[in-house]
Amino acid sequence: MTKKSFDFEFVEKHIRKKTFGILTTIDSKGRPHSTGILYGVGPPESDFALYFVTMNNYAKARNIQNNPKVSFVITFPHYYLRFAPANYVMFRGTAEILPFDDADGQWAFHQTRILKMNLNMPPSTLKDAVFIKMRPEPTVFCFGLGYGIMDIARHLDEVMYKVQIPETRLGSR
Hints:
Blueprint: H1 8-15, E1 20-26, E2 32-38, E3 40-41, E4 50-55, H2 59-66, E5 69-76, E6 87-99, H3 103-109, H4 113-117, H5 123-126, E7 129-136, E8 139-143, H6 149-154, E9 160-164, H7 167-170
Antiparallel strand pairs: 1-2, 1-5, 3-4, 4-7, 5-6, 6-7, 6-8, 8-9
């Protein structure tokens, strides 16, 4: 197999097509807490960030207020070969709680129909709604994204790779 080379632009293009991943926070006892969650990606002209909608009193929001370190995994399952391991992209970084009217969070959630539906909450719920903004570290960990299923099966150790978020997309951290 010829080793392929991918960059962050390739990875970003793929994650912008998805809306679901697994967010892991750290609880008050230092234990990981993982939950499935919808996400949106901020505007391309802004610093790269991932956005999630939640309620201020949910465990993930409370955990982030106590410890901002998080990780986020986006899977890319094989639709016809369900037995094959899913490709994935994994981010590590820090998160912060933002008000529900945050402009970049709103922009991110207006990009797909399913995400827009999450913005249409009953008024009684809106008072507790917040955005989580994740600022990833520069290194993004990938498995299998861009490779065919046979390459993955035959060269498992070669389909794991890292890409770097360009410094111009990281802003001041």
